[in-house]
Amino acid sequence: MSEMREPEAEVRADVPRRSVPVVAVVLAAGLGVRFDVDNPKQLFRVGGKPIVAWSIEAFEANPDVTDILLVVNDRVRPAVEKIVADNGYPKVRMIIQGGEERVDSTEAALQTLAGSGIPADAKILIHDAVRPFVSQESITGCIEALDSFSAVTVAVPSTDTILFARDLGERKVVRDVPDRDNMFRAQTPQAFRFDTLRQAYARAATDPEFHPTDDTRVVVDYLPDEPVAIVAGNETNLKVTLSSDIPIAEWIARSLLGE
Question: What is the pTM for the complete model shown?
């Protein structure tokens, strides 16, 4: 664990209950092998700055976010630490080590927060670092929705028809065509009351088949009675996955910068 500054090396746990901590956990530990094995995508420069910097600055700019926790791997840690040091992001409290999979990184963040004495009702926003253009409206929407729900996800309505498939010999065949009006594409942040997400992960830990791709899935699968509210996302909340995503990301960056 890398302590970034004293005396605020730990996430603050002394915020009054009526104004609980709002912690953004930015996951930047992915290897990004589909992007470029020699150039980690979270460090790739878009619009003149690293992708991870865009994500950090989105949460720095939100007045309701109190703390930022960065989760990295060994390969990107020195560069991320330099980005934070050079920019002096005041809300970044710690940079911690992630795991092999996304859920391992979330679990590492939860353990760190628990060790910092974070209250059970703290609001936790889990965000993929490679979604650099998350809007303030989506961030604030998550924070406000947690006043009424214990789990929230940013999502956009699906404009494509979704097909449920099954195996038939060597091919997949269509099993069902659900109503598109009820289909959404998940984005991040995905936000939770701290204790809700910890409970979901504690239950998941007993399941040998536990391999979810995001944190909403953990709550849906292991706390099935806990409703997960949807907060509006937008199409510019792009996840940079492939090198072919970069031209689109550059176009979004230029539009945000007014170029």
Answer: 0.89
Diameter of the chain by CA atoms? Answer: 62
Domain ranges, residue 104 = 2-256
- Any idea what the CATH number is for the domain that residue 127 is in? 3.90.550.10
> Does residue 203 carry a pLDDT above 80?
yes
Residues 6+ apart with CB under 8 A from 197: 106, 110, 124, 126, 151, 215, 218, 219
Nearest to 241 by CA among 147, 102, 116: 102
Helix (H) or strand (E) holding 125, with range, is strand 123-128
pLDDT tens profile 66-99: 999 999 999 999 999 999 999 999 999 999 999 8
Cα 51 to Cα 72: distance, rounded to the nearest angstrom: 14
Find out whether 65 and 142 touch, Cβ atoms under 8 Å: no
Q: Which of 7, 24, 4, 31 is nearest to 86 (CA)?
A: 4
Own/partner contacts of 203-208, CB < 8 Å, gap of 24 or more, are 204/103
The model's pLDDT over 232-241, given as tens digits with 9 standing for 90+, comes to: 999 999 999 8
Give, for 128, the enclosing helix (H) or strand (E).
Answer: strand 123-128
Pairwise CA distance, residues 87 & 68, whole Å: 14
What is the domain count for the chain? 1
